[in-house]
Write a structure and sequence with these properties.
It is a single chain. By secondary structure, the chain is an alpha/beta fold. The protein has 3 domains: 32-188, Rossmann fold (3-Layer(aba) Sandwich); 194-261, Helicase, Ruva Protein, domain 3 (Orthogonal Bundle), CATH 1.10.8.60; 271-364, Arc Repressor Mutant, subunit A (Orthogonal Bundle), CATH 1.10.10. The protein is 46% helix and 12% strand. It is built from 15 helices and 9 strands. The strands form 3 sheets. A 5-stranded parallel sheet has the order 2-3-6-1-7, with helices on one face. Strands 4-5 form a two-stranded antiparallel ribbon. The protein is globular and about 70 Å long. The chain starts with 21 loop residues before the first helix and ends with a helix. Bound molecules: adenosine-5'-triphosphate (ATP). Adenosine-5'-triphosphate is lined by residues 1, 7, 19, 28, 31-33, 39-42, 72-78, 168, 170, 200, 228-229, 232. Pfam families: AAA_lid_4 (PF17864), RuvB_N (PF05496), WHD_RuvB (PF05491). It is found in: Cytoplasm.
Length: 365
Amino acid sequence: MAEGALDPQDLGGRIVGGGADDVERAAEAALRPKRLEEFVGQRVVRDQLSLVLQASLARAAAPDHVLLSGPPGLGKTTLAMIIAAELGTSLRVTSGPAIQHAGDLAAVLSSLEEGEVLFIDEIHRLARPAEELLYVAMEDFRVDVVVGKGAGASAIPLALPPFTVVGATTRSGLLPAPLRDRFGFTGHLDFYSAPELERVILRSAGLLGVDVQHEAAHEIAGRSRGTPRIANRLLRRVRDWAQVRGDGILDLRAARSALEVYEVDPIGLDRLDRAVLTALCRRFGGGPVGLSTLAMTVGEEPDTVETVAEPYLVREGLVARTPRGRVATTSAWQHLGLEPPAGTWAAGSPDEGTASRSRALFDEV
Ligand SMILES: Nc1ncnc2c1ncn2[C@@H]1O[C@H](COP(=O)(O)OP(=O)(O)OP(=O)(O)O)[C@@H](O)[C@H]1O
């Protein structure tokens, strides 16, 4: 991730939050797949991207601009790096929040070399003047450098060599249509299935030089919220437990014990998630209850509840968002070992419509 980029999901010690801090990013770097064939899952996006890249290599021309959307930790940055590696070119990295003024972006664009890939993380957070400058650069490979001030100011067009923008966003719904339209290829990353996460874990264990038993990988995958970043993080915590309290072997006992220490329950919920469910069911009789009231009850900011805990609770069919507030479903009551009162919202099966639910949620939140 780019210098200065803010991660709304970066919440200190929360082990299943989607974001990552600097220490974690260093640990992650070693585990990143370097080529498309190493990238686990996301078959559709991988196939489509592979075509785009192969065609561009065959034509010896820079490929169309690429937009990657999806929740944090699913591999957008990794794919941007892979795109540059597959094209045999270098990657320049920046982010929406790091670009304060249009001039900052003009400086980055005018220093690009032919065929380079420019990765713009959190592209939905670009300021409007920078956004407008980017449209022109993406379409006409040109930046207008403004010289002078006020009435005497004039714009000198500066031609840019062909390059490819890879934009990443967790909120594609916030991107203005003119910017979205400049991308020739858009890939949406969805949450990973448990078997895919198991493959991520086995691959990472190999790179870390630790031997993880299949049952342990299965257990960790089931608690990783469909997210490779979380799977890798939990794997490292299980390795810690095995080294400090176990016999060094990453088996089922080590996985379960470590995840108990870190309060990650069998379906991947942590303390905050359970606090939200408990408040909804025990305090408010299952809801509906407003976000601010709910957040106050669990001692968190509404934004934290909304962007960190809620997406997964909704995706798993434990909480429903209604116009009148948040509602606990029958699954939420059952997960807490409580009897749902008559008339409680029924939940769909957790996997039903996961992709569309996750997409809708991240676009709208
Ligand atoms: N398909 C995958 N196969 C293997 N590992 C993956 C895959 N996707 C992601 N990872 C791992 O998960 C970690 C997080 O991925 P990455 O930083 O690319 O996510 P991101 O979507 O860019 O997140 P953010 O939006 O928070 O920056 C990386 O260390 C990477 O090793």
